Task: structure prediction
Amino acid sequence: MGKTNVILKQHIENLGDAGDLVSVSAGYARNFLLPKNLCIPAGKAELAALEVHKEKLRKAAEKEKESLQIKAGKISDLLLPVTVKVGQNGKIFGSVTSMHLVDLLLTHDIVLDKKQIHIEAPLRETGEYSLPVNLGHGVHATLRIQILPEVVQ
Result:
């Protein structure tokens, strides 16, 4: 049985990701991958197109990383005030969550997912905190927040 090279169109468990050049048995390619439109045979033209596609993906990832670094700079320069209701002993009713912070960051035109902000322990007291933010592509920032008691009139 011979081997054949194919380019995957989508992720296939234990084989590879979309755009990967893989070597599989000829029967597997002929009887499973090709009929289900999961790959294309790797000829010279397809390999050249794959290289062009990979270069486009690399440039797009580079642009994305640059924009994330700009966003990280904005986040690091910010001191985010968070006003909350507190009891008589200075304890917060409930706690400050990453969802609260995401909503407050939207007012500063910074869009994040709540999973990107790492809160180690619940924030239940007033004060200043530094929280790590993972923006992806190896870009990290530190979000500084200041929890302030709500002024009651």
Notes: Residues 65 and 137 are 6 Å apart (CA to CA). The domain at 68-149 is CATH 3.10.430.100 (Ribosomal Protein L9; domain 2).
